[in-house]
Amino acid sequence: MDPSEAPKCDVAPATASAYLDPNYWDRRFNQEEHYEWFKEYSYFRHLILEYVNPKSAVLEVGCGNSQLCEELYKDGITDLTCIDLSSVAVEKMQQRLLTKGYKEIKVLEADMLQLPFEDEKFDVVIEKGTMDVLFVDSGDPWNPEPVTVSNVMAMLEGVHRVLKPNGIFISITFGQPHFRRPFFNAPTFTWSVEWKTFGDGFHYFFYILKKGERSSNNIEYIEKTSTPTFSLYHEELESEDYLFRTNLDGM
């Protein structure tokens, strides 16, 4: 990560539990112009463009102050809708996009647990680090707290609902497959599940969930897929990403 993108020392919270507080995000977005969770677009652009094209209607869940939507727009993907729970983030994002002339991108204040969209509206839904927030203070990663399970399932059910038939959900996360599998493979969903990794030392996970393509072979495939080992560079150990992930998935 470019040092210029690192958050100010008074922006990062002392503990990961602060990420669950909506007021924290409003305060943060008031002070911070830009921060990229889980690496910038160039690290996973080759993966994104395998599944997203200029004709795709795309929803980004939890846009914050990321530049992901701008990078997608530069790649010719203009039917973009971004949502965030923070009114501060939404207002600042709207102003930034208008200043740059990206008038087609829609930015709305909305809760990812109650997506305000009609059924089967989007070809692609993308989240980058947003779902990870739901796992903060989740307890035993093998047996998460009921509130965690409820919130994660509410998010996924909403995503599944707004995806068109054969639509794709892309989840970019720290979450390892053995912890994400029970949620992604819940009986209520019809999507297939696969993943790829990217990053230098630490491997971030890039999940691809294709609606309507679930098969009996899906679980067998996941069981046989090994999880990469972790090797953190010194600068990653000092980043806010590391603070975040040490409280997620039992790492």
TrEMBL record:
GO terms for molecular function: methyltransferase activity. Residues 55-175 form the Methyltransferase domain. Protein-lysine methyltransferase that efficiently catalyzes three successive methylations on 'Lys-36' in eukaryotic translation elongation factor 1 alpha (EEF1A1 or EEF1A2). InterPro entries: Lys/N-term_MeTrsfase_sf, Methyltranfer_dom, SAM-dependent_MTases_sf. It comes from the Eukaryota. GO terms for biological process: methylation. Belongs to the methyltransferase superfamily. It comes from Perilla frutescens var. hirtella. Keywords: Methyltransferase, Phosphoprotein, S-adenosyl-L-methionine, Transferase. This is EEF1A lysine methyltransferase 4. Pfam families: Methyltransf_31. It catalyses: N(6),N(6)-dimethyl-L-lysyl-[protein] + S-adenosyl-L-methionine = N(6),N(6),N(6)-trimethyl-L-lysyl-[protein] + S-adenosyl-L-homocysteine + H(+).
